[in-house]
UniProtKB/TrEMBL annotation:
GO terms for cellular component: plasma membrane. It catalyses: ATP + protein L-histidine = ADP + protein N-phospho-L-histidine. The chain crosses the membrane at residues 6-28, 162-185. It comes from Schinkia azotoformans LMG 9581. This is histidine kinase. Pfam families: HAMP, HATPase_c, HisKA.
Length: 460
């Protein structure tokens, strides 16, 4: 047995025992006092009836008749004169009866009769007395007796039955507690065992998730937790292996170019060229590490969005000016379509990162003589910003993965298109931080469109 089931069981047991004891006590006492009352009531009523008959006709033959009537009954009658001298009795008068009759001598009894003895637990008889009054004078008494032994026997039997029922109900309680512990505590213990296994990295366990009660809910939650944890672990491992790959590649370049630059027979010009490559690669690594750091902060929810109202037109124009030389060099047209009065409440610094990343991609993945367009639309449902290009596009297979960290369609890291694969992951985080959404549509060799939707509508 385990602790919870013992505690639960004990609590149940105590409560049920308390309730049962109380119920039994009231029931038991109620039945007994009811029984006694009805016995004494009957005795008195019988005595009164005899008395009434005798009052009408207080003669030998009537007395005889009354005594005769009681001979076969469980009760006994004794008829006396006004001085308690026995005239007639239905059965032999015992010492106990005589004693009661004698003790009642010189007492005054009301006409409708009185209880003479009701201590059924200790005395041999319960008794009543009814005075016989003829012409306003007491001429005698009708004593009624009932033996208490049968009553005591009956109550003894009742007690036994109550004890039996009590024992049975305690037994049933024990069985209930056992079943309860089996149905409640056992699944809990099983879940505890499974969660311990999960924390040790074992996700193979199967829980009973089919129950449609709270325990089923708990089991399903644990299962979900286990699945999530497993997925997270897998993600982390994949992430670690791609990050080590991504760090190793540029560092290999660095080492290679550093070796070459060390050669003694190089011209100054050549050496400077290699040093420039080394510098560029080093900058790439720094950028990658910065991005990773950024994402880690975002994951920890340590980044806050500092919103302020921004005039989108000016905002986009400023970014495009910075990109213009690069676009010119690649012979790609960059156009901004944004009405003059559109305002949004955004974190400008972060949002600049978003647009820059998207423009950077559009530039990187588009051939010469194409157009990249940034277009803004605002209505009461919010603000939509699209960045579309006419570049190489993304295949349907790759499309869902582009938001993943370090995911690049072109896996080989060529130095010309060597992005980190973190750009879109950062973009997504920032947009979600703004409570917005970002989606992508793309067709290979036709172009790609990224659509940002902000809830910030034209009304505010
Ligand atoms: N405009 C685009 N056209 C074609 N492919 C794109 C475009 N934007 C992103 N991609 C694909 O999505 C991948 C992930 O993008 P991103 O997270 O910005 O990483 P990076 O640009 O550093 O490679 C890119 O490697 C590229 O394959
Ligand atoms: Mg990018």
């Amino acid at each position: 047995m385990n602790k919870l089931s013992i505690r639960l069981g004990l609590l149940f047991f105590i409560f049920i025992l308390l309730i049962e004891t109380m119920l039994f006590f009231f029931l038991y006492q109620g039945i007994i006092s009811e029984r006694i009352q009805s016995e004494t009531g009957n005795l008195l009523a019988r005595g009164t009836t005899h008395r009434n008959v005798l009052e009408k006709n207080f003669q030998e033959s009537t007395i005889e008749h009354v005594a005769l009537m009681e001979t076969e009954a469980a009760t006994d009658v004794v008829i006396t004169d006004e001085n308690n001298k026995v005239i007639k009795s239905s059965n032999e008068i015992t010492d106990g009866m005589q004693e009661l009759i004698n003790n009642s001598k010189a007492h005054h009894f009301t006409h409708h009769g009185e209880l003479l003895e009701d201590r059924w637990k200790t005395e041999k008889y319960m008794a009543t007395v009814s005075p016989i009054v003829v012409n306003k004078k007491v001429v005698g008494f009708v004593f009624m007796f009932l033996e208490t032994v049968p009553i005591r026997n009956m109550i003894h039997q009742l007690t036994n039955q109550f004890i039996l029922v009590g024992v049975i109900s305690i037994f049933i309680t024990l069985i209930t507690i056992f079943l309860l512990s089996k149905f409640i505590v056992s699944p809990l213990l099983e879940m505890k065992r499974v969660t311990e296994q999960i924390s040790q990295g074992n996700h193979e366990n199967e829980l009973n998730t089919k129950r449609d009660d709270e325990l089923g809910d708990l089991a399903r939650s644990i299962q979900l937790l286990s699945d999530n944890l497993e997925r997270l672990k897998k993600d982390r491992n994949e992430f670690l292996s791609s990050i080590s790959h991504d760090l190793k590649t540029p560092l290999t370049y660095l080492k290679g170019y550093a070796d070459i630059a060390k050669r003694p027979n190089l011209t100054n010009e050549q050496r400077n060229e290699y040093l420039a490559i080394i510098k560029e690669e080093a900058e790439n690594v720094v950028a990658l590490i910065n991005d990773l750091f950024e994402l880690a902060k975002m994951d920890e929810n340590q980044f806050t969005i500092h919103r302020r109202s921004v005039m989108l037109n000016d905002f986009l124009e400023k970014i495009s000016q910075k990109f213009q030389p690069a676009f010119n060099e690649a012979n790609i047209i960059l156009q901004i379509k944004c009405a003059a009065n559109i305002r949004v409440s955004i974190d400008a610094e972060r949002f600049r990162q978003v647009i820059s990343n998207l423009l950077d991609n559009a530039l990187k993945y588009s051939p010469a003589n194409t157009t990249v367009t940034v277009e803004v639309n605002q209505n009461k449902n919010g603000t939509t910003i699209t960045v579309s290009d006419e570049g190489e596009g993304i295949s349907e297979k790759d499309l869902p993965n582009i938001w993943d960290r370090l995911y690049r369609v072109e896996k080989s890291r060529s130095r010309s298109t060597g992005g980190s694969g973190l750009g879109l992951a950062i973009v997504k985080k920032i947009i979600e931080g703004h409570g917005g959404e970002i989606s992508v549509r793309s067709k290979v060799n036709v172009g790609t469109t990224f659509t940002i939707h902000l809830k910030d509508g034209g009304a505010n």
